Amino acid sequence: MTHFGIVCPPAIGHLNPMCALGGELQRRNHKVTIFGISDIETKVKNSGLNFWLIGEQEFPRGSLEQQYEKLGKMSGKEGLQFTIELILNETKMIFNNLPEAIKSAGVEVLIVDQVLRAGGTVADWLKLPYITVCNALLINCEAGVPPYFTNWDYNTAWWAQLRNQVGNFFLNRISVSIWQEIQKQRHQWKLPLYQNRQDAYSKLAQICQLPREFDFPRVNLPAHFHYTGPLQNPSSIESVSSPDLTFPWERLTDRPLIYASLGTLQNKVPQIFQSIAEAVAKLDAQLVISLGNPLNKPEDYNLPDSVIVVSFAPHQKLINRAILVITHAGMNTTLGALSSGVPIVAIPITNEQPGIAARIVRTGTGEVVPLKQVSVEKLQKAIKQVLTVDAYKQNALKLQAANKQGGGVSKAADIIEQVIATGKPVLARTTN
Fold first, then answer.
1. Do residue 389 and residue 423 come from a single domain?
2. Is residue 236 domain-resident?
3. Per-residue CA distances from 102 to 7, 91, 255, 342 (Å)
4. Which of 233, 340, 244, 251 is nearest to 289 (CA)?
5. Higher pLDDT, 72 or 344
6. Which alpha helices (DSSP H) does 175-224 contain, by range?
7. pLDDT (tens digit, 9 = 90+) per residue, 318-337?
8. Residue 328: closest CA among 297, 362, 307, 351
9. Rounded to two decimals, what is the model's pTM?
10. Is the four-CA dihedral 205, 86, 42, 96 of positive or negative sign?
């Protein structure tokens, strides 16, 4: 038995896949502890994993919801910059609290979310092996791939590579505070300074919950990078859920189901939900809208009575019954739809969502309506197109097959166990 420690952002989109992976390792008789702030304690314990509290002073109870309330009203560059500020604060908190917590807990191996590069530095300081997990869109940079925060398409032309390099330069510029904080801590701990951002990822295994077929073509990923497909609970129940909230299954009819969710962060703009409701109203379909947060009250959104509106939904179970998913192009909703072979209409808002939307377009699994162009007419046009052109459904089914072939949490756990058994990098060509 190995004692694994998990370090990831407190957002549901990161916690759900990490808890699913932790649950799989726990089923294999390992011990798993998630280190986090007080606002996620109940969520983690409900998933069946151990929880270790850190950051009480930096993130007192209730502070996370206040931050996400602000982020939920932002889009584009503003939302990206705010997210970077949150990660910087988490980075400082991790350096201040995590080392002693890990030593006290007796953790032997760290599993670190790619977004929190600080976790790798803590592992180096404690001389612990660690594995990197990409729960959001992978942020490994290379000249041929557009930066994750853009909606740019993939193109091999010289001008596109120059464009990508400029975009990556901009990203490094606005996130330089995080980079400087990590380098400063490595200097204080007398660890070798990183030469570039990629140095912060594991040299043993990097696991990504995309299927390879959904990503843009890449040539510079390390040999120990693995596309496993979605890190989901096999039961179609989200690892992090709200068990005290019930869904009115009795209200579902025989009409085709359209499921809409803007995730757990970008859900503070009622006008988008209203546009979705109006766009679906004239179709022969039943609409279910999840507001993405138990604190969001349906009565505050002024939506038609014909729409089933809930604060928080049994996400994957509804996706499994749907003919279409309308989403902000968050990673978990997108992968949930494609795992069930369901096509998508995406409304990307901020952070990596434009990059995910660009991949939806490239794979032909859905249509995208940019946030600034959202209207009832444009949404209705996109919905009708995706539902009437069979290619979208067929392409979604191809991605469903690719997700299954990737192996998901089982393959990811196999890779991690192989790292522990051998102490050496696990190469993709020997595991995929």
1. no
2. no
3. 10, 16, 51, 41
4. 251
5. 344
6. 176-188
7. 999 999 999 999 999 999 99
8. 351
9. 0.93
10. positive
* Nearest-angstrom CA–CA distance, 124 and 94: 14
**Sequence-ordered strand ranges (E) for 1-49:** 3-7, 31-36
Are 293 and 352 found together in one domain?
Answer: yes
Q: 109 forms bridges with which residues in the sheet?
A: 4
pLDDT tens for 197-242 read 999 999 999 999 999 999 999 999 999 999 999 999 877 676 676 6
* Lookup: tokens for 163: 């464009």
Greatest extent of the chain over all pairs of C-alpha atoms, in Å = 64
Q: Do 191 and 117 belong to one domain?
A: yes
173 C-beta neighbours (distance < 10 Å), count: 8
Residues 389 and 418 in one domain: no
On whether both 389 and 414 belong to a single domain, the answer is no
**Strands, E assignment, 55-149:** 109-113, 130-134
Query: Does the CA dihedral 224-47-139-379 come out positive or negative?
Result: positive
Structure token pair of residue 154: 């993939």
Element (H, E) at 138: none
Token look-up 């939900």 returns 273
Structural domains counted in the chain: 2
CA atoms in the 13 A half-sphere facing the CB of 135: 26
What domain range is 419 assigned to? 3-229+407-431
Contact assessment for residue 227 and residue 212, using Cβ atoms and an 8 Å cutoff: yes
Q: Find the CATH number of the domain harbouring 26.
A: 3.40.50.2000
Which class for 140: exposed (0-12), middle (13-18), buried (19 or more C-beta within 10 A)? buried
Do 9 and 119 lie in one domain? The reply is: yes
Please state the separation of Cα 31 from the chain's center in Å: 24
